[in-house]
Amino acid sequence: MTIGRVVQSLTIATLAMGAVARQFTPEILVQTNRFSGNIAVSPNNSLIAFIQTRYSIEDKRQNTELLIQGLPSDSAGQSSTTESQLVAAFSADARPNPPASEENDAAKKLHKPSQPVWLSDSTLGYVVADSASGKSTLYAVSSGKHRHWSKPYPVMTTVAPIADLQYNAASGILAFTAAVYNGTTLEETFKRDRKEQERADTGQTYDDLWVRHWDTFVSPKVSQIHTLKLGGTGHFGQFKPKSEVRNIIRDTPVDGRLDVTDSFVFAPDGQQVAFVAKKPAGDYAWKTTSYVYVADVGGSAAAPINEGDGGASSSPAFSADGSRIVYLQMDAPSYEADRNRIKIYSSVDKSTVSVAETWDRSPSHVDWVDDATLLVTYNEWGRNKLAKIDIVTGTVTPIVSKHSVGSVTRLTGTNSVLIDYSAFDMPTDLYAVSLDSYDDQIEPKRVTDLNPMITSDLLSAAEDLEFVGADNATIHGFILHPPNFDPAKSYPLAFVIHGGPQSSFLDAWSTRWNLNVFASAGFVTVALDPQGSTGYGQKFTDAIRNQWGGKPYH
User: Fold this and answer.
1) Rg of the chain's alpha carbons, rounded to an integer?
2) Which of 126, 217, 415, 535 has the fewest CB atoms within 10 Å distance of its CB?
3) Closest of 292, 212, 227, 301 to residue 260, by C-alpha
């Protein structure tokens, strides 16, 4: 592992292409720097930590870096990017069957960082998975007054891979998910796996559905939440476990699988977690019904707060005093494209109320601003927006309406959030946004600059398209012109169609369907959202039902 200071990590090949061939090509796209996983903000909002990945065509290597960067104290003020510090780095041969070499053998001994989490203002933890043994180790680095980071030291090791790592400083509880056999501990699962390895075959018997989800056979294991107590002070006072790892939902009474399907969240005091799992019953395979569960971090069972016949649940979040949980839920139990409704559950009187019930949009994320206000992200007319919602009146107040907002991280004790933000002509970066903004009045302030070599002359901005289609409905889409477009000339057309079908094109950066790759190649590029697309109201989304080959072609 290497600790050092970097301004920006770029491959030589990427720099060369950016300097010589001023055309945005697939080769440039696949070599861009990307965020991987969560963004970790230190408790005092002074530092952020994140994983950055990049691929090198020339070297045929995938590179992973864990970076720490300062967060400007006036995060909602002027845009300001600061120098990053490299905490850990990993590089591996990306070919499917890499040849034997000293370099590749050495890479197997290196540590690939993942899942950064702050244990204190001066101590950062991260996970390293050992693919050979299947074990995961939590490492930590600490800093002094001048941001000199220590060498990584191991905090704890688990016998299985772990995910969704989170730490609550108030309780000193570290929590994560791990795949176990339903109702077992990590150690019990490890022992059973050892016995399974002694088998002479790999056959699997399925006594009930699910058998396969899309192209993946369903594993007999399920993702469940585990906790342990950590002790330590940071500032070079090393953290270490103070308790055994426990599966806090292993004894939940269920008829079937209890599989955590959405990342869990801590209550503010760290004594409980909330999570989402599909309804464990005989209709598990053909119904979308899932519940929000609550579990004590020192317990062994969880209880649902919204048990019933509704559809999929998602995005639970505790209020500041821990007495209420806001979450999203669909009504239809067998439809994956129903509208997400906003619900608030009170643990005081066990009641549930709906918020903004008449708002015909489907939020994808919800959180608290304060006791009277919620924060949501939602798709609307080709943009993924950020808005506040008044709990009593249901009034929606847009904060960011341009381009597209991805993940949202609250900056504790401030009126700002950290978002990942992008557009067709703007690669994803982190920005700070004031919650006092109204409909883009206060511009998001750039915090990171992962791809300075992707300049504006390489990319085309999108223009909105609208026309009247089936049902006299307005059809929306985007058009991108090639660089140096001349309206007097003829150009080939690239007509890009999204899948789903209940999906949409967003004014957002994509490393999969990047419309600027087509436009830069000389195509007038058109992307439309026909009936069935999301972001235009539930009636428009539902219009695709029984209409494949119908309304979208009008």
Assistant:
1) 24
2) 217
3) 292
Residue 315, pLDDT score: 97
**pLDDT at res. 281:** 78
Query: With the CA atoms of 487, 490, 492 and 495 taken in that order, what torsion angle do they form, in degrees rounded to the nearest 10?
Result: 50
pLDDT block averages, 10 residues each, the chain of length 554: 41 42 88 96 95 96 95 62 86 88 64 95 95 92 80 94 96 97 93 92 85 87 96 73 96 88 94 94 85 96 92 96 97 93 97 97 97 98 97 97 95 94 97 90 92 91 94 95 95 95 95 95 96 96 87 79
Residues 6+ apart with CB under 8 A from 468: 474, 475
- The confidence score (pLDDT) of residue 126 equals 97
Question: Distance (Å, rounded) from C-alpha 366 to C-alpha 369?
Answer: 10
Q: How far apart are alpha carbons 416 and 406 in whole angstroms?
A: 15
Other beta carbons less than 10 A from residue 488's beta carbon? 4
Q: Is 506 buried (19+), middle (13-18) or exposed (0-12) by CB count in 10 A? A: buried
**Hey, is 452 helix, strand or coil?**
coil
| Site of tokens 């999929």 | 312
Other beta carbons less than 10 A from residue 320's beta carbon = 11
536: number of Cβ within 10 Å: 23
d(CA 221, CA 319): 32
Q: Evaluate whether 9 touches 27 at the Cβ level (below 8 Å).
A: no
Which helix (DSSP H) or strand (DSSP E) does residue 380 occupy?
A: strand 373-380
Contact, 3 vs 83, CB < 8 A? no
| Torsion angle of C-alpha atoms 126, 128, 129, 130, degrees rounded to 10 | -160
Peptide bond into 154 cis (omega under 30): no
Please state, in angstroms and rounded to a whole number, the distance separating the CA atoms of residues 124 and 129. 17
Please list the alpha-helical segments (H only) found in 26-178.
Answer: 26-30, 102-107
CB 498 within 8 A of CB 515: no
Tell me whether residue 405 is exposed, middle or buried, using C-beta atoms within 10 angstroms of its C-beta: 0 to 12, 13 to 18, 19 or more.
buried
Instruction: Retrieve residue 85's tokens.
Output: 């510090």
Residue 147 structure tokens:
């941001």
Could you tell me if 137 and 159 are in contact, meaning their C-beta atoms sit under 8 angstroms apart?
no
Tell me the β-bridge partners of 522: none
What pLDDT is attached to residue 235?
Answer: 53
Sign of CA dihedral 347, 351, 355, 360: positive
In 382-521 the beta strands, taken as DSSP E runs, fall at 383-390, 396-400, 404-410, 416-423, 426-434, 445-446, 463-468, 474-480, 493-496
- Which residues, other chains included, contact 487 with Cβ-Cβ below 8 Å and sequence gap of 6+? none
Please give the pLDDT value at position 108. 60
Tokens 């730490």 locate to 167
Distance CA(277)–CA(223), nearest Å, equals 9
CB 150 within 8 A of CB 133: no
Q: Which residues contact 498 (CB under 8 A, 6 or more apart)?
A: 504, 505, 513, 527, 529, 533
